[in-house]
């Protein structure tokens, strides 16, 4: 038994040494099998990847928002994001309010990545830190938001539906729990339906698209909030377009309120997004532990 | 002012980015979904980034799943090249995987058709 025990341990050390010597293949932002999912703007995408959204600019509904989100991988498929933003609100009939919104930290784990079915799923836990923002615009209490995120491409559709293969969906189902009992909990549900021209060009039928056009992804996003204690659902539907380059992504969307309680004007969202894993693949763009640094 | 800020940031990102990223398929010959009157003798794939030869390859199979390559994949720079046997009319599937020099992996597949004479 002792001999077998040591033999097993010796084999383990050999395998460990081999694994450290072999080059490690990185699976990074938005790629699952044949599919590339661009980063969505109004809803979180399900990838634990090194990326930076700076700035995300929201205009409309009597408010301007200037946000950022930085996501850092700790281990492969495990990341932590830090999100914050500056708010300039000028509600009709009310005083203007400006200042920093609360910062939010979200650890997440991408626990399913299935290349064949172009499916990815993640779980996260958001902590919006009460009091970390300005008193004029930010809550003084912390809000906790467990969330489930997924993405699914439709590359497996039959030949008769080949032109629908570039379609993909992403979604987020979350439950926000304010740290103050007088505030209502809410189910947050958001997602995107997107059509990848890159997938159409490279995997279905070469349409002779220019390089710029082939990197466009038209999409419709939605972001809804349904309080569980009081009040009705509010949210927006956001048709828009994303352009994904080798290192950056640009996106613009219209923001259409779904009802009067959600707003009375159509707004706009714009985002510049950096693929940090591609910009700095040997340093900041790789996991702190278990990466290919 | 806002668009100007974004334009400056885009310009900085474009100028400062090093030449390493995911290797996405840039163009292919034969291309995805192409109907060919003349059977191709090789597959050429061009990628957006230089490839790691040891971890990049392409295969071509016929409708019964049989490999129709006439040799190994040749990888050089950002290109892959695969010689093919004499192809009969029918549908063929190209399946590739690529690892760029910064070790990011991508993969893809598509079909092309060789028409009867």
Structural features, described:
The complex is a heterodimer of chains A (293) and B (117). By secondary structure, chain A is mainly β. Chain A has helices at 2-21, 197-204, 211-214, 276-279; strands spanning 31-32, 35-36, 51-60, 63-75, 78-89, 97-100, 104-114, 119-128, 143-153, 167-178, 186-195, 216-227, 234-244, 248-257, 267-275. In chain A, strand 12 (216-227) and strand 13 form a beta hairpin. The longest helix of chain A is centred in the first third of the chain and has 20 residues, at 2-21. The radius of gyration of chain A is 21 Å and the shape is globular. The two termini of chain A are 39 Å apart. Chain B has 117 residues and is mainly β. Chain B has one domain (21-114): Immunoglobulin-like, CATH 2.60.40. In chain B, strands 1-3-6-5 form a four-stranded antiparallel beta sheet, with no helix packed on it. Chain B has a four-stranded mixed beta sheet with strand order 2-8-7-4, with no helix packed on it. The interface between A and B is large, with 37 and 35 residues.
Number of helices of chain B: 1
In total, the number of strands of chain A is: 15
Strand order of the largest sheet of chain A: 3-4-5-7-8-9-10-11-12-13-14-15
End-to-end gap of chain B: 61 Å
Rounded to the nearest angstrom, the radius of gyration of chain A is 21 Å
Mean pLDDT of chain A: 90
CATH architecture grouping of chain B: Sandwich
> Could you name the CATH topology of chain B?
Immunoglobulin-like
What topology does this entry show?
The complex is a heterodimer of chains A (about 290) and B (about 120).
Chain A: H1 2-21, E1 31-32, E2 35-36, E3 51-60, E4 63-75, E5 78-89, E6 97-100, E7 104-114, E8 119-128, E9 143-153, E10 167-178, E11 186-195, H2 197-204, H3 211-214, E12 216-227, E13 234-244, E14 248-257, E15 267-275, H4 276-279
Antiparallel strand pairs in A: 1-2, 3-4, 3-15, 4-5, 5-6, 5-7, 7-8, 8-9, 9-10, 10-11, 11-12, 12-13, 13-14, 14-15
Chain B: H1 2-16, E1 25-29, E2 35-36, E3 42-47, E4 57-61, E5 74-76, E6 79-83, E7 90-99, E8 105-114
Parallel strand pairs in B: 2-8
Antiparallel strand pairs in B: 1-3, 3-6, 4-7, 5-6, 7-8
């Amino acid at each position: 038994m002792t001999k077998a025990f040591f033999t097993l341990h010796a084999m383990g050390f050999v395998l460990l040494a081999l694994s450290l010597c072999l080059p490690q293949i990185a699976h990074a932002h938005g790629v699952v099998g044949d599919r590339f999912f661009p980063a969505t703007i109004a809803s979180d995408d399900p990838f634990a990847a090194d990326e930076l959204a700076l700035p995300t600019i929201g205009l409309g509904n009597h408010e301007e928002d200037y946000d950022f989100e930085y996501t850092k991988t700790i281990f492969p498929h495990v990341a932590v994001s830090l999100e914050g933003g500056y708010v300039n609100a000028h509600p009709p009939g009310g005083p203007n309010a400006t200042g920093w919104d609360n910062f939010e930290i979200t650890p997440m784990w991408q626990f399913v990545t299935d290349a064949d079915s172009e499916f990815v799923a993640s779980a996260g836990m958001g902590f919006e830190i009460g009091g970390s923002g300005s008193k004029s615009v930010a809550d003084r209490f912390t809000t906790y938001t467990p969330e489930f995120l997924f993405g699914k491409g439709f590359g497996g559709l039959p030949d008769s539906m080949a032109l629908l293969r570039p379609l993909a969906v992403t979604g987020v189902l979350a439950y926000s729990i304010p740290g103050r009992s007088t505030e209502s909990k809410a189910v947050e549900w958001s997602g995107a339906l997107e059509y990848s021209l890159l997938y159409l060009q490279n995997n279905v039928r070469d349409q002779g698209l220019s390089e710029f056009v082939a990197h466009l992804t038209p999409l419709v996003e939605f972001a809804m909030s349904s309080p569980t204690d009081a009040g009705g659902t509010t949210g927006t539907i956001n048709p828009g377009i994303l352009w994904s380059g080798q290192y950056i992504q640009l996106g613009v969307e219209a923001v259409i309120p779904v009802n009067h309680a959600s707003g009375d004007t159509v707004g706009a969202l714009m985002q510049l997004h950096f693929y940090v894993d591609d910009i700095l693949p040997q340093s900041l763009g790789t996991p702190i532990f278990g990466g290919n640094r | 002012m806002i668009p100007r800020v974004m334009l400056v940031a885009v310009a900085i990102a474009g100028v400062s980015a090093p030449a390493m990223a995911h290797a996405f398929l840039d163009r292919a010959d034969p291309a995805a979904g192409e109907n060919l009157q003349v059977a191709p003798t090789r597959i050429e794939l061009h990628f957006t980034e230089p490839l790691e030869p040891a971890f990049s390859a392409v295969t071509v199979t016929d409708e019964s799943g049989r490999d129709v390559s006439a040799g190994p994949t040749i990888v050089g720079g950002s290109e892959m090249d695969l010689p093919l046997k004499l192809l009969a009319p029918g549908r063929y599937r190209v399946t590739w995987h690529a690892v760029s020099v910064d070790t990011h992996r991508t993969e893809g597949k598509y079909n092309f058709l060789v028409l009867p004479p």
